[in-house]
What does this fold into?
Amino acid sequence: RWPSCSLTNPIPFYTVNITLDSDTAHPSLKVSEDGKSVIYCDIKQGLPDDPKRFEDQLCVLSQEGFISGKHYWEVEVGEKSRWFLGVCYDSVERKGAVKLCPGTGYWVIGLWNGCEYFIFNPHRVSLTLRVPPRRIGVFLNYEAGKVSFFNVTDNSHIFTFTDKFSGTLRPYFRPRSHDGGEQVPPSSNPPKIFFSRVARG
It folds into this structure.
């Protein structure tokens, strides 16, 4: 437990390099060759059916999975207005819609319409942030049963889940298709990269 709950403490010492697993990505999401970014495509890609691939959720998991230890990573969200990120069990159902709460194996934070930050625990709980984050830090302490989120932009603590884990946890990333809810004409370019970089340090 960090006394100040901020990034001035040693949390970054536990930084891990995260790479997105394209085999888990929804067919409308395209993962970059280096596995460090993901972009939404209007037309689903013709990908082979894979039991690891999410069918309904527009999300992707990391290649890395954790069953012990302390791990920290950061995600650039920029000025995007809708997203979810955090961790989930590797065993979560891939082929249907689900509520993103601890009871279903998800410990995530979300943003909706550019101003509504929230978590489900199990019901929706609104969060108040002083400064809109451009980068989110995620700290997993497996043995302590904690997943903490930090606003790297102003060096502040956002929220911590406390639970008891019993399986492999994988970093979870869920961009929204048409950011901000706008209609994207067929002739226009697809939305830009959502998580522009899964960053280290």
User: Anything to note?
Assistant: The longest strand covers residues 70-76. Residues 11-199 form a domain with the Jelly Rolls fold (CATH 2.60.120.920). Residues 82 and 112 are 5 Å apart (CA to CA). Residues 1-8, 178-201 have pLDDT under 50 and may be disordered.
